[in-house]
Amino acid sequence: MGWFFGYGSLVNHLTHDNRPLRAARLEGWRREWCLTTLRPVAFLSARPAPGSAIDGLVAQVPGGDWRALDQREYAYDRHPVTAQMTDERAEEAVQVYSVAGRHRAGTGRGSILLSYLDVVAEGYQHHFGEAGVAAFFATTDGWDRPVTDDRHQPVYPRHRPVIPAIRDMVDAELAARGIERRPPEG
Predict the structure, then answer these.
(1) What was the pLDDT predicted at 102?
(2) What is the mean pLDDT of residues 58-80?
(3) Which is nearest to 170 in space by CA: 182, 179, 160?
(4) CA distances (Å), 82 to each of 2, 105, 112, in order?
(5) What is the torsional sign of CA 172, 173, 177, 181?
(6) Residues 143-168: pLDDT tens digits?
(7) Interacting residues of 164 by C-beta distance below 8 A, sequence separation 6+
C-alpha cells in the first residue's frame, strides 16, 4: 500500500477517489506558489524548510498503484516523508509531490488561478475549518503574484463550484494581503 500527503488541491477529497484519508501534518516543509516551464500559471508545491510545518491530508493510494496519481501530478516528483509526518499513524510509508530540485523555474510572475485557489480553500475548510483556510494562507509563500479571477469561466481543470462562504474567505484573505486580482486574458 502507498500513502500520499496532499497540501493543495489534494486536500479537497472531492477532487480524487483515494480513500481512506485523514488530516495530518508534515514537519520540515513549507508550501509555495511556484512556476515551472511546464505550466503558464503558478501552482502549489512544497519544499523542505526546517522549522516549518504544513497541514494537509494523508490518503491511501489504492493497491499501491501510483500511475493515475502520478499522471494527475505530472509536474511533480514524489519524495518520501514518512519520518516527517506527525500524526498517530506515522509509521506508514508516506510520499509528497514536490517540484523541489526537479524543474527549472519559469519566467515571469505567473498568476494564481482563483478557480484553483477556491478548490484548495474548500478542502481546507472541510477538513480544518475556517482557521484551516487562514492557516493555509499563512503557511504558503509566493503571494506576491497576481490572481486571475476565472471564477465565471474556470481554467483550472478540477474546478468546482464552491459555496459563497468559501469564496468570501478566499476574497478576504486576498484583500488582507493586498493581492492584485485581474480578469482573465482574452
Answers:
(1) 52
(2) 88
(3) 179
(4) 11, 27, 30
(5) negative
(6) 999 999 999 999 999 999 999 999 99
(7) none
Question: What's the whole-model pTM score?
Answer: 0.91
Is the domain spanning 2-182 CATH 3.40.430.10? The answer is no
Q: What percent of the chain has pLDDT over 90?
A: 70
Q: Are strands 147-148 and 39-61 parallel, antiparallel or unpaired?
A: unpaired
C-alpha grid cell for residue 172? 478576504
- Residue 7 C-alpha cell reads as 497540501
Is the separation of the CB atoms in 105 and 34 below 8 Å?
Answer: yes
Burial per residue of 52-80, b for 16 or more beta-carbon CB atoms within 10 angstroms, e otherwise: bebbbbbbbbeeeeeeebeebbebbeebe
DSSP state of 12: -
